[in-house]
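For the sake of transparency, this paper describes our internal protein records without simplification. Because each token names a local backbone shape, the row as a whole describes the fold. One such record is reproduced below, unchanged from the form in which we store it:
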Amino acid sequence: MAFPDDRPARWALVLLGLVVAASVLTGTLAWTGAAISTAVIGGLVLPLGRTQDLALALNRVGLLLLGVLYVGFFVPHVALLREQPNGWRWVLFTVYTAMGSDSGAYFAGRAWGRRKLLPAVSPSKTVEGALGGFAGAVVIALLCRLIFFPALGARETVGLALAIAALAALGDLCESAIKRAFGAKDSGWIIPGHGGILDRLDSLLFPFVFAYYYYAVAARGW
């Protein structure tokens, strides 16, 4: 069953997502709370006008609210990390380590991939590829350590690499699940030939959120 008037609600939630992103970037907690609260309240009120199919209406609104948080709250963490002392080093460390994970998974999967990791979500991913992703992340992270953080311990570097690799893989799987659920080939049209914006960020969003909070809690000295 289609809801022809979903477009206004969708644009309203896009606007709320932008407010969330702006408030996160400026550190204005009150605006962040207000935007998220408005999105949740609006999302709960909206289905009251669609009583002909409440279950479907609530399901669609829930997905729209998830989008507000997934994009509006997660994406600004890239800028938040960059703004910290030595933040550019952390940004590059995170990007390169996640790329090392992606490359390791790709080559290991092509060479030795036999056992499917999660075929219902991403048929091409294998257990062997996932293990190669961890190995690739560790190798690149150790190389980055020599360039960016020579005082960082080897064990801590390996731990960070494994966490980033795991989160990169989970981010990729989560977006694959979203696209598969809606029968979408990609998540947008802005970059022709490269899928949507989230297709470029799916393996980076979770690692950037982790890296920012790891820095905030444990790594301010690096």
User: Anything to note?
Assistant: Residues 84-222 form one domain. Confidence is low (pLDDT under 50) at residues 187-196.
